[in-house]
Specification:
The protein is an all-beta fold and 327 residues long. Helices cover 0% and strands 53% of the residues. This is YncE family protein.
Length: 327
């Protein structure tokens, strides 16, 4: 099976993170700062295109057919992360506003935004003000909520996508960053980069509980059956695999400085992008068997592999390489 996996490599601006999505209601969501992990940018495929959120303040719409930029959407600030709605009609992106120097930054106290675009026309539908330095944005699978982690406020904003209003602001751990929502849309699992925990948000009661994961968790992934959680641990060079029933944690050694991860369509493998640091970048993607908790393959990528996603048919992996500015 591993031999049939292809890694797509194309040139793109400031590529960091990735999400793939198909046209219509089916989405495949793979795959957000703190130690050497920069503002994340994700990609998404919509019919014949995928979108990339670029740190320079743009969103690129790239043709899948020839891997060339078809259109560029301008934004005022750092576009940190991007996500497609479950129905494939709306693209949501987190935006860190520019500082006096003209770039988005940390610690300015200026609320960030989530931008909502029509996925087909690229028209801006709405700007929603959230917390300080928004990191990742994720739709619940039922389309009822949009969640946004506010990295410097230690909160998550809950947005109603029908009204584009913030309906809840929930405290998290220190430095909330990447996260995933369970397939049944009941729980959000948020990696708190500033500590060693994952915040578990109950989306029915909006209560938060915290579980230990390991040092510098960057993002999470949860299997479709809701039984297994995977967490990248940047400072431990490991993937934490958590049994959500027993809360038992098993750590599997991966590459240096793992950033984002994606659980494949079959739910058996976790694909981990190993970023490293700018001074000593990693250039690999580790594939971990979640059942045996072993590494089954490692594939060479570009420098600073950050985001990763896998196509719905399991044939292609898309990896963003933040120090090469490629996908």
């Amino acid at each position: 099976m591993m031999s049939r996996l292809n890694v797509k490599m194309i040139s793109i601006l400031a590529s960091v993170g990735i999400v793939l999505a198909g046209c219509g209601s089916d989405t495949a969501t793979r795959v957000e700062e703190k130690p050497a992990v920069k503002a994340a940018k994700q990609e998404q495929i919509l019919d014949r295109y995928f979108f990339t959120a670029n740190e320079g303040g743009t969103i690129s719409k790239v043709s899948v057919k020839d891997n060339k930029v078809a259109e560029t959407i301008q934004a005022d600030g750092v576009v940190h992360n991007i996500q497609l709605s479950p129905d494939g009609k709306v693209v949501a992106a987190t935006l860190v506003p520019p500082t006096e120097g003209g770039h988005g930054g940390h610690g300015e106290g200026t609320p960030g935004k989530v931008l909502f675009y029509d996925a087909y026309t690229n028209d801006l539908l709405k700007e929603v003000e959230v917390g300080n330095h928004p990191a990742h944005v994720v739709y619940s699978g039922d389309g009822k909520y949009v969640l946004v982690t506010n990295n410097e406020d230690n909160t998550v904003s809950v947005i109603d996508p029908e009204t584009y209003e913030v309906v809840r602001t929930i405290p998290t751990g220190n430095g909330p960053h990447g996260f995933r929502i369970s397939a049944d849309s009941k729980f959000a699992y948020i990696a708190n980069m500033g500590e060693d925990t994952v915040s578990v948000i109950n989306l029915e009661t909006f209560e938060e509980e915290r579980m230990k994961a390991g040092n510098t968790p960057v993002t999470t992934g949860v299997t479709k059956d809701g039984e297994t959680l995977a967490v990248t641990l940047f400072s431990e060079n490991a993937l934490a695999i958590v049994d959500l029933k027993t809360k038992q944690v098993v750590k599997v050694e991966v590459g240096i400085g793992p950033a984002q991860l994606y659980i494949g369509p079959e739910g058996k493998f976790a694909y981990v992008a190993n970023q490293g640091t700018e001074e000593s970048p990693s250039n690999s993607m580790t594939i971990v068997d979640l059942e045996t908790k072993t590494v089954v393959d490692e594939i060479k990528t570009g420098n600073g592999a950050h985001g990763v996603t896998v196509s719905k048919d399991g044939k292609f992996a898309y990896v963003t390489n933040m120090f090469d500015n490629t996908v």
